[in-house]
Amino acid sequence: MKIVVIGATGTIGSALADTLETGGSHEVVRASRRGPVVVDLAEPTSIDAMFEAVGAVDAVVAVAGSGQIARIDASSDADYFRGLEGKMLGQVHLTRRAAHHLADGGSLTLTNGISAFSEPGLSFAALVNGGLAHFVPAAAAEMPRGIRLNSVSPGWVAQTLEKMGRDGSQGTPVAEVVRAYVELIEGTGRGLVVSPGAE
Questions:
Q1: Distance (Å, rounded) from C-alpha 56 to C-alpha 179?
Q2: Whole-model pTM above 0.85?
Q3: Residue 80 — pLDDT band, cuts 50, 70, 90?
Q4: CATH: 3.30.300.30, 3.30.470.20, 3.40.50.150, 3.40.50.720. Which one for 2-194?
């Protein structure tokens, strides 16, 4: 399969691209805001340019997204709403375009994330992630030509927590998260929102 990994420079994206390339059964195209194939999900025209540049593809995976911890009562609008254009609306734009560009029976896998947070500063992340989790099953039923739409909800990744100086044991190892993406790409499911590491 020819697979585009959007966000291929990140913790999950780079591990996923490496895993998909192992064994040589997939051709992986690495895309990111500063990668060999440039795409910014916050800019719909760059999604169009990406599809034009890569040509026919069998699968697309989006593991790109931006945002930050921002309290509802102590942050600017710009900080609080960060992630709306890229992670949420950007993946919707990607879905709409993938419906026209993916091969028949192709696979599109998005990334949402957990929406039940107990720590302050993550209310907008909960909104975005919850919205995407509900979008995927509904949009999957509308995808043409047998294209399968699914999503992974990785929650905190162990390696990301460690980079933040936090306890990595409270997150899911990146290898387990990557396995969830690979199973959706290579499988037959549609409209699924998978949460690796969830009990």
A1: 25
A2: yes
A3: confident
A4: 3.40.50.720
